[in-house]
Each structure stands twice: as structure tokens, then as C-alpha cells.
Amino acid sequence: MHGYYYDQNRVYPPNDPGPRRRGPGRPGKAVALFCCALVLLLAAAVVLRWVGDTLSPREDLFYSGDERPRETPYDWGNTWDWEDEELGETTVERAPLGDNVTLTLTPQPQSEAHTLQTIYQENIQSIVSIWGDAGTSYSFGTGVVMSADGYIITNAHVIEGCSSLEVILQDDSSYEALLVGMDVSTDLAVLKIDAWGLDAAVFGDSNQMQVGDTVVAIGNPLGQELRGTMTDGIISAINRDVDVDGYSMVLIQTTAALNSGNSGGALINSYGQVVGITNMKMSAYDDTVEGLGFAIPTTTVKRVVEDLICQGYVSGEPTIGITCYTVTQEIAEEYDLPLGVYVDSVQQDSDAKKQGVFPGDVIVEANGQSITTIEELLALKEGMETGDVIHFRLWRSGAYLERDVTLIEQYVP
């Protein structure tokens, strides 16, 4: 069961019910207006549909981040069933590239830990709110000030599909944000606002963190009204491999409470240093899960952010150009699929697309090696370079096909 989900928050303007979805809602009053039994039945059906589909803006605060519909024939265990509407392309105006701005990771000091009150005061001015216009909806998340001249770090999924972005500082001043760059595979994005003298966060070295270390998270859970919320916990695991939306991420696991809206916020050590960018939590389809939050370590953040600022994309990252999921034994039996890796989407400009790999294909072999999990596919790709070729054996609608796919450099224009 795929229990992880992106924690992007989708909210809707006042008087706009937002997208229709199935789920619990509020009782309607229309039924009382009908007197005829037949009409009552029809009206009840309409009201039940409305009950399941219509949400107030407050209820929409509990949307998770992956609003893109899955064309897979099975449920991966996400919390909600999404409407059949894909997020559009991210069309935020781009910022100029090439600044020589770097992210410095400061070693942990050899001194006493700070109090929680001190940590909050040291960091709160470096935490910003982010609003994104995604056409039929709005996105709300958190960001961390990287530099005094207006570079902001957040999650890629917070701004995905947006056409414009707004950054709100703690003093309520608001700035239109330009997109420097975003990298979906690491879930990181950099924004630029026309501001000076900002309070930049102090970033620490996540490699120095150990299981059991105290941390706090500061962000904007459930929207603007609760912005600047701090929660505390410990590091419960480091170098945790998490597969989400076809990408493998190595994350810090924490017990600090994270909720919708915390995405892009700061995970901070006991010395007031940001050691991670919070980006997801664990959600179980049929159970309650608490205290399982995740953050992108600053060692990853530094590498990605510096590439984005310099050139707008992350260099040296070969990709097949697909997102995919493991077909488990249970899924294989239920949907009559072979064990392997299910192709969920294919990048438009990838060689995989040119060679005729389609969503719905199941990868069963790569370079003559049997592939039954996404981890096996990623391990095979490890160490390969852009331009290398992988020979795939695919299953499609009961038939097996052969495809040679050239790895391309991962690039988000």
C-alpha cells in the first residue's frame, strides 16, 4: 500500500466550492422542497451526489498534494479519490539565472542547545507563506528565506501547475514571486522576490544529525490562519528511502507534527539551524498514522538549489523519462498484471516517449535483468549516465514488447 503522499494544500476562494470529489459532506435542504415520492428519490440522489462532492473552503484544507489523477487500474492507498482533472503546466514567470548565490551549511556549534522559545524567535522571520494560482484552484504552502536578497526555497509540489505565485512575509508584506527553477524528482523549487534585507535562515549540515536528536518544524499548517506554527519532535530515522509518484527520495524521518500547508517549511535542529525542508507525511488508507513526517536533508537541498539558481535545472541527473510504481503480488492477482514496474506517465520529450513506451505498460525486464520492484529498476539505473541505453521488455495488454530507451538529462524548463 502506497501510504505516502505529497502534502500540497489546495484551497478555494470564498463562495467557490472547488473541484467535485467523492467523500463526506454537509446535508442538503433541497429534499424538503419536493413532495412527490418519485421526485423525492431523484432529489435525494442529487443531494447525496452534492453531499459527496461539494466541500467548503475549510474542508478543502485537508487535500493532500497529489491532485493529478492516476490512470492506474488500482488504488495506491491515497487518502482521497481525485477528480479527473490534471494540473496544468507550471507557467510562473521565470527569474534571471546565473547569480553566484550559494547555500552555506554551517557545522553544529560546540555549545548548549537553544531553548524552544529561542529557536522560534531565531527562525520565525525566515518562514514565509506561499500562495499559488493554479487556475481552478489555489495552492498554499510554506517557504524558507535562503538569502537576504529574496531567494526562497519551497517544495516543487507546492507550485506545480501554478501560473502566478505570491510570497507573504511575517510582517504581512506581499511580493509577486518569479520561478528560478524546480526539480520534481527531489521536490524542491527556488523562487525570487524583489526584496532586500530579509532575515535569511541559518542552514545546518543534515549529515551531522543522529536518530534521537531534537528537532522542531515551523510552517503554516492548514492555511494562513495558523501560519507560523511550531511543533517539536525527534529525528526518528535518517537516510529513509521513500518512493513517491515514481521518484525515489532519501529523506529525514521525524516525529514533529506536519500537516497540509507545512510543505516547504523548515525542520530545525536544537541550535536553530535548518537541517531539512519538510515535504511529506505518511497517510494510511484504512488506519490512523501519527508522528511520521519527512523532510529533504540540507545536503540534498544545497546541491539542487545551487544548480537551480545557476542554470534553472539540476544537471548530471539521467532519467528514463517515466514515473512508475511497483506491481505487488496482490495487485498482480487482482488486476491480472505481471509482477514488475507499472508505467504511470511518460515525459513528453523523453526517448521513452519516442520509442513507444506508454502509460499502462509494465516493465518486466531491463538489460536482461528481471525487474519486479521500482527499487530494482532504480538500482540498475544507478551509475548510468545520460546517453546510456536501457533495453526494456514490456508487458502490454497480454503481449510482450521490446524497447531500447536512451537516458536523457533530467530537465524542467
TrEMBL record:
Keyword Transmembrane appears in the UniProt entry: yes
Pfam family, one: Trypsin_2
Coiled-coil portions: none
Residues making up the signal peptide according to the UniProt record: none
Region described as Disordered: 1-25
Keywords tagged on the record: Hydrolase, Membrane, Protease, Transmembrane, Transmembrane helix
Domain of life: Bacteria
GO biological process: proteolysis
GO molecular function: serine-type endopeptidase activity
InterPro entries for this protein: Chloro_Bact_Ser_Proteases, PDZ, PDZ_sf, Peptidase_S1_PA, Peptidase_S1C
Name this polypeptide is given: Trypsin-like peptidase domain-containing protein
Residue spans crossing the bilayer: 30-51
Lineage of the species this protein comes from: Bacteria, Bacillati, Bacillota, Clostridia, Eubacteriales
Alphabetized Gene3D superfamilies for the sequence: 2.30.42.10, 2.40.10.120
Domain annotation PDZ: ranges: 315-398
